[in-house]
Amino acid sequence: MANTTKPLILHAHATGPNPFKIAAALEFLQVPYVVKLWDFGPDPTKGVKGAAFLAINENGRVPALEDPNTGVVSWESGACMNYARRVYDKGNVLGPKGDGEQGRVDFEKWEYFLLTTLGPMTGQTNWYRYYNAVRNDDALKRYVEQTERCYSVLEGQLKKTGGESILPGGITAVDLHFEPWVRQHAYAQISLDPYPTVKKWLEKMGNLKEIQDAYKKIKEAPKP
Ligand SMILES: N[C@@H](CCC(=O)N[C@@H](CS)C(=O)NCC(=O)O)C(=O)O
Predict the structure, then answer these.
(1) Does one domain contain both 33 and 58?
(2) Which of 20, 21, 77, 161 has a CA between 20 and 30 Å from the CA of residue 122?
């Protein structure tokens, strides 16, 4: 049967980690999509803080996901991910794969841990390392420690599957949430030496065709 799904529009940035999660999910779900890249900044037609993008996401951040098949617009990578799962994951490709309520809660625990903790702590590490207008060693130290603490928690969890997936039972959307952030470890100057299972998992993720295709699609999208 011909696939009549119209391509979704994934609003992204060439390097920011969050849109890659959604591209990866759409690859796993085999949902067609096109990528529209935006600059970081206030340009009215090209920037995430400009009028054209703020009409899509009033928070001025990517990803945002427009679905012409349903008319639904989502933003915040957690909301985009869960929209894609609810509407397009009829075969439970992206989990939760664990049983019953505990399985669903385990999925959400790790999803929220990335969205509220590992992602933002890494973001603050990057901010104080590279972008803050004045040097603030105290803030940098605090966020590096917190980011490393998150890696240590993730290492403990990944050991349970020997680095195969964050949750037992195989790759889920949870792995897709973590992958682009952990991939940035070198930029954040977080060594993976103390976290060998995280390293193993990251290598495995990077070899998956769906992950490679997601990165290719965003990297090769027309520049804003
Ligand atoms: N909590 C949001 C974070 C989104 C976010 O911070 N996106 C970055 C790119 S990865 C962005 O758009 N930054 C632009 C800016 O801060 O102006 C999510 O998970 O989607």
Answers:
(1) yes
(2) 161
